[in-house]
């Protein structure tokens, strides 16, 4: 199994997007940078915010593309080529419409499901064979409302549930970074089936 050497968080740059569902990938990578006590700094040649952290005894690059979602592949390819990181050593954290808030899934390869960030990364890398951390944000129910939905902040109970899911993703990070991707997937998805249903916060 290949070790994960690059973790990419997807989102849109700018203060107007910080709290939106589409920036869930940024949220998770921000937490990893905090854990590693390393600030993410803008690097022009990599078209994004970049930092190298040591987590659970492993060195890993963190990247938040600043090119807007639909051009995320430019940044991913630039850093991966420069440091000779293979597609199966890349983990992309992103918002996932087909997974409800409070759940998080791990997979390798597959389609982009209409996600513009994944589509562009796949096009630039020339393969879908990278890992994805699918952070559930839920679906508006109407396909015509998807863009409006992902560019708005989640409700309080959804935000709390997403935070819980990210915490569970943190628990499998040691296995991911050690190259035990199969074990990480099994642990994460087993945890998903055992977790208690999230209860919305009571009305004030």
Give the helices and strands as they follow along the chain.
EHEEEHEEHEHHHH
Q: How many individual helices? A: 7
**Looking at the structure, what is the overall shape?**
globular
Major sheet description: 7 strands, mixed
By CATH, the architecture is named 3-Layer(aba) Sandwich
Question: Low-confidence stretches at least 5 residues in length (pLDDT < 50)?
Answer: 196-204
What's the total number of strands? Answer: 7
Instruction: Please bin the fraction of helical residues.
Output: 25-40%
Oligomer: single chain
State the domain count: 1
How far is the N terminus from the C terminus?
Answer: 49 Å
Strand content: 15-25%
What is the CATH level 1 assignment? Alpha Beta
Estimated radius of gyration: 16 Å
SSE topology sketch:
Elements: E1 6-9, H1 24-35, E2 41-43, E3 48-55, E4 58-65, H2 72-82, E5 90-96, E6 104-108, H3 116-125, E7 131-136, H4 146-150, H5 156-171, H6 173-177, H7 181-194
Parallel strand pairs: 1-4, 1-5, 5-7
Antiparallel strand pairs: 2-3, 3-4, 6-7
Question: Mind explaining what this structure looks like?
Answer:
By secondary structure, the chain is an alpha/beta fold. The chain has a single domain, classed as 3-Layer(aba) Sandwich (Rossmann fold), CATH 3.40.50. Helices cover 36% and strands 20% of the residues. It has seven helices and seven strands; from the N terminus they run E-H-E-E-E-H-E-E-H-E-H-H-H-H. The chain has helices at residues 24-35, 72-82, 116-125, 146-150, 156-171, 173-177, 181-194; strands at 6-9, 41-43, 48-55, 58-65, 90-96, 104-108, 131-136. Strands 2-3-4-1-5-7-6 form a seven-stranded mixed beta sheet, with helices on both faces. Helix 2 runs parallel beside helix 3. The N and C termini lie far apart (49 Å).
């Amino acid at each position: 199994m290949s070790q994960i050497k690059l973790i990419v968080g997807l989102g849109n740059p700018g203060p107007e997007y910080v709290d939106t569902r589409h920036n869930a990938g940024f949220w998770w990578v921000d937490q990893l940078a905090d854990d590693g006590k390393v600030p993410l700094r803008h690097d022009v040649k990599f078209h994004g915010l970049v930092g190298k952290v040591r987590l659970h005894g492993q060195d890993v690059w963190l990247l938040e593309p600043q090119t807007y979602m639909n051009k995320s592949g430019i940044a991913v390819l630039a850093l991966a080529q420069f440091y000779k990181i293979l597609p199966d050593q890349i983990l992309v954290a992103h918002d996932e419409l087909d997974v409800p808030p409070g759940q998080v899934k791990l997979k390798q390869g597959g389609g982009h499901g209409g996600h513009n960030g994944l589509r562009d990364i796949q096009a630039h890398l020339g393969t879908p064979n990278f890992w994805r951390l699918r952070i559930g944000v839920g679906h508006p129910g109407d396909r015509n409302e998807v863009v409006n939905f992902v560019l708005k902040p989640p409700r309080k109970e959804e935000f709390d549930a997403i935070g819980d899911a990210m915490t569970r993703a943190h628990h499998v990070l040691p296995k991911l970074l050690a190259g035990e991707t199969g074990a990480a997937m099994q642990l994460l998805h087993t945890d998903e089936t055992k977790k208690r249903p999230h209860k919305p916060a009571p009305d004030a």
